[in-house]
Amino acid sequence: MLDYTLKRSKRRKTVAIKVAQRELTVYAPHFVTKTQINEWLLSKQDWIDAQLHKQQIQADTRQFPLKTQSIKLFNEAVNVQFDNAARTQWQQHNESQTLLLSISSRVKHQTQMYQSLLEQFLHEKLESYIEMRVNDYCQLMGEKLPSNIRIQLYKRRWGSCNRRRELTFNLHLASAPTWVIDYVIVHELAHLKYLNHSAQFWQRVGLFYSDYKQASNWLNNHGMSLQWVFE
Ligand SMILES: [Zn+2]
């Protein structure tokens, strides 16, 4: 049964409903019984649901705090614009510094959808960069290509490597400078030979990425600021 506030009035001759702030108010004359009101509401159920749904969408859109904000891609600021359109998609014209995220107004949870579109964009950019650099460094290091490369959101690791030669990279790296991403790539590729952090492992990292201390410091100092959060 629908939850509603009932307001009785002596002067009123008919029953009326109002849907505001996603709440239902029923105005009724004194002579109409509660059973009659409930029956009448039941006949209006579809209309009420449609109104509630519409207001939920408007509320979600309003809750979205900013019309534009900026994120970092490879340490460069990119303005993000949010828009309602017929199709849900991200667009970045000619590598411009503006990213347009469009979602359909029929999408119920708008903020989550913007967040997931933004992640799709960063995922695609980071993935193509990493694939290119893994190829470069595998040649340099005389290493066979990894069996698989995945990108995921991690809280406290930048990458990983396992015995099946699968590499994983943290999606948050998309906001780091490319020289830092290169370090993480060399680090994980060096694990293909040494699955530990022994002196030999670090020697191999240093052979192909001499500034590894600088890059690792950069991650320690800036790592937390790489997270993009919608608040
Ligand atoms: Zn490691």
From TrEMBL:
Domain YgjP-like metallopeptidase: 13-222
Gene3D superfamilies xrefs: Metalloproteases ('zincins'), catalytic domain
Superkingdom as given in the UniProt entry: Bacteria
Record-linked PANTHER family: UNCHARACTERIZED PROTEIN YGJP, UTP PYROPHOSPHATASE
Identification of the protein by name: YgjP-like metallopeptidase domain-containing protein
Highest classification ranks of the organism: Bacteria, Pseudomonadati, Pseudomonadota, Gammaproteobacteria, Alteromonadales
